[in-house]
């Protein structure tokens, strides 16, 4: 075994953490954020919404079950770096095809282990998410801090352009990355889930979508046609979908005026469901705006209350921005859900139009399945629209 090399993480406030280098040998910068999920590091690493960010996992050991070919959320990871307390020296799972170390090497992502992630997370909670420099090459503290201070700021950054698909395509049920969601022919039942007999066509804007969302849509009776983030309203109309889906994605939601414009144009024409960045795009289409949260919500057990039903769901989340509640009122938006930790907006709907969205991740990969019925709600909304009831 080769001797582990030292590596460094520096924050823009001048803090420096030294650990052991693994993954790619390089120096990167990015916004340092933390995720409190106990499991699901593969889905987190491959979620394109982390583009431009250095992910700190607060779970003390990462990597013990390796990575499997079926659980990726995108074709390649888009995060900038990974920080962990301990990387498991062994991989123990029959589904595993590689280790975290091998995966990071393959995709050129640097990682630090043996970092006091508790101290780092406490710093980020008090000061807020900060820009950082992570290097697995020889670099002095002063050099690393200087690079962290020069890093591109999250606010104002359009990272969607870097992760969206280049051309429209049909999401294929039999695509290799789709193996872990068994295909249910129309009308058949698996466990408590019955695949609807009638399938609807949904046009999905890919802002950096997690594949689990497409898998869920397919399971819930949708045929998914995926469109690049800058697809014009006319292109969507040509496809004649039954509904629109707005995906999750990286970066600052305020920095995407071309998407705000398209969604505004399509607002009154189709039933719409948005998740995370998609929810934020609906916010802008309703004339509203977002603001940056201090340290964001990233984890697998965040409590959300539905203000209309009183029901509380435990949800998976990954976002750094949130909707300003008052800002959506004029455009007909109603806040439907709030986060019980900080009372920020977690869901909205339109007063009359068949449009709704959530800031959290109902596809839950990783995470609890409390919000799974939202996919059924979207299906029901489209059924009603087609029956002329709304
Ligand atoms: N997961 C997402 O879609 C994140 C949305 C947005 N980039 C945010 O951080 O708030």
UniProtKB/TrEMBL annotation:
Residues 5-135 form the Carbamoyl-phosphate synthase small subunit N-terminal domain. Belongs to the CarA family. GO terms for molecular function: ATP binding; carbamoyl-phosphate synthase (glutamine-hydrolyzing) activity; glutaminase activity. The active site is at residues 276, 361, 363. Pathway: Pyrimidine metabolism; UMP biosynthesis via de novo pathway; (S)-dihydroorotate from bicarbonate: step 1/3; Amino-acid biosynthesis; L-arginine biosynthesis; carbamoyl phosphate from bicarbonate: step 1/1. Residues 1-200 are annotated as: CPSase. Its EC number is 6.3.5.5. The keyword Membrane does not apply. One of its GO terms (biological process) is L-arginine biosynthetic process. The gene is carA. It is an enzyme of class 6 (ligase). The keyword Nucleotide-binding applies. PROSITE patterns: GATASE_TYPE_1. Composed of two chains; the small (or glutamine) chain promotes the hydrolysis of glutamine to ammonia, which is used by the large (or ammonia) chain to synthesize carbamoyl phosphate. Tetramer of heterodimers (alpha,beta)4. This is Carbamoyl phosphate synthase small chain. InterPro entries: Anth_synth/Amidotransfase, CarbamoylP_synth_ssu, CarbamoylP_synth_ssu_N, CarbP_synth_ssu_N_sf, Class_I_gatase-like, CPSase_GATase1, GATASE. Small subunit of the glutamine-dependent carbamoyl phosphate synthetase (CPSase). CPSase catalyzes the formation of carbamoyl phosphate from the ammonia moiety of glutamine, carbonate, and phosphate donated by ATP, constituting the first step of 2 biosynthetic pathways, one leading to arginine and/or urea and the other to pyrimidine nucleotides. The small subunit (glutamine amidotransferase) binds and cleaves glutamine to supply the large subunit with the substrate ammonia. It catalyses: hydrogencarbonate + L-glutamine + 2 ATP + H2O = carbamoyl phosphate + L-glutamate + 2 ADP + phosphate + 2 H(+); L-glutamine + H2O = L-glutamate + NH4(+). Pfam families: CPSase_sm_chain, GATase. L-glutamine binds at residues 49, 249, 251, 277, 280, 318, 320-321. HAMAP family: CPSase_S_chain.
